[in-house]
Structure to design on (211 residues):
């Protein structure tokens, strides 16, 4: 299991937190890019500041209404992943192709209330599916236990149809809830990791056990 660390909840001393993350074993820096339209929060400047300190592969999660300008903004950073929300509902296949054309893995995210039917047409084409275990928009929310069943369904679909996507889960993941997402390939955690001993908490999540 890989770990992607979000700095969404870091409002002070971002540079110091990023220094500790760069020295840690986290696999990715997870950028929560919000435009203040798709969700009410606006984090573009915060995420851009984090990138200036970053030395980890980037996992970029776009929570935006107009996806294209943000793909163009971040593609030069050559992130590992660029993921946007299926709920944006516009030119999804074209946007996925555009991301892949840059040699970047393309993903789709879906909120807890969104039916899996909305992503089914794209499962054969995506490299990552980001399962939100909280509604997109803010850090520090409570994990929705129904997420576990959704992850299981996506694993079964991948096996049955030979799809190649990785399954990522994001929202409310900590030492208490990580045991419920063991079938995911990548887990995103922010508040839990950055508000303590970063390396110890990353290892706790990797082990998938309460600590």
């Amino acid at each position: 299991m890989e770990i992607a660390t979000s700095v969404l909840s870091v409002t002070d001393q971002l540079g110091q937190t990023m220094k500790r993350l760069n020295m840690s074993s986290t696999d990715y820096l997870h950028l929560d890019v919000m435009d203040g339209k798709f969700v009410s929060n606006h984090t573009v400047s915060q995420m851009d500041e984090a990138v200036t300190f970053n030395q980890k592969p980037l996992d970029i999660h776009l929570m935006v209404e107009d996806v294209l300008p943000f793909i163009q903004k971040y593609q030069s950073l050559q992130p590992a992943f660029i993921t946007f929300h299926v709920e944006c509902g516009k030119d999804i296949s074209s946007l996925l192709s555009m991301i892949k054309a840059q040699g970047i893995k393309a993903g789709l995210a879906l909120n807890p209330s969104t039916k899996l039917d909305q992503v089914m047409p794209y499962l054969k084409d995506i490299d990552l599916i980001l399962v939100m275990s909280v509604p997109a928009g803010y850090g520090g929310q409570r994990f929705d236990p129904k997420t576990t069943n959704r992850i299981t369904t996506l694993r079964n679909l991948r096996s049955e149809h030979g799809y190649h996507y990785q399954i990522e889960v994001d929202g409310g993941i900590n030492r208490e809830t990580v045991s419920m997402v063991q079938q995911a390939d990548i887990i995103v955690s922010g508040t839990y990791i950055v508000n303590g001993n970063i390396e110890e908490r990353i290892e706790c999540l990797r082990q998938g056990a309460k600590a």
Remarks:
- The first helix runs from residue 14 to 23.
- The chain has a mean pLDDT of 93.
